[in-house]
TrEMBL record:
Highest rank taxon of the organism: Eukaryota
One GO CC term on file: CST complex
GO terms of molecular function: single-stranded DNA binding
Name of a matching Pfam family: Ten1_2
Protein name according to UniProt: Replication factor A protein 3
């Protein structure tokens, strides 16, 4: 079985158009906002945008709320799932309860300059369009 590499996608893009990336492998970067080991669920935020993450495939990990993480996984439609309610959504959050990232890889990237990272991803996308 071949695994796809994760295409860098911003959480904002997933929230604004949840069906565009459905069933695709993506790599997201954001701050761990909340984690619930009882449900194998996390919430990762980038600014006011929030994505719900299924961490079941990651096994036992020590997560630090407030740290920056990158995750690779498949965006899945949750209409057919028995998803637990959101953990700790902040009032201003923009999110979609229609999708979830089923993460298979995670690593901490605390210290990553998110502004430079975003510029780099956008420049990479523009270069690959040529």
């Amino acid at each position: 079985m071949d695994l796809e590499s994760g295409k860098p996608v911003f959480i904002e893009e997933l929230v604004q158009n949840p069906t565009q990336h459905a069933n695709k492998t993506v790599r997201i970067t954001g701050i761990l906002h909340a984690y619930d080991p009882a449900f194998d669920r996390a919430e990762v935020a980038d600014g006011l945008n929030l994505l719900i993450v299924d961490t079941q495939l990651l096994g036992v990990q020590k997560y630090n709320v407030g740290q920056i993480y990158q995750l690779i996984g498949v965006i899945s439609d949750v209409h057919n799932d028995q998803m637990a309610p959101p953990i700790n959504l902040f009032k201003e959050a923009q999110y979609s309860l229609d999708i979830v990232l089923r993460a298979r890889v995670v690593w901490e990237v605390d210290g990553l300059d998110m502004a430079i990272y975003k510029k780099t991803v956008l420049a990479m996308r523009q270069a690959l369009e040529c």
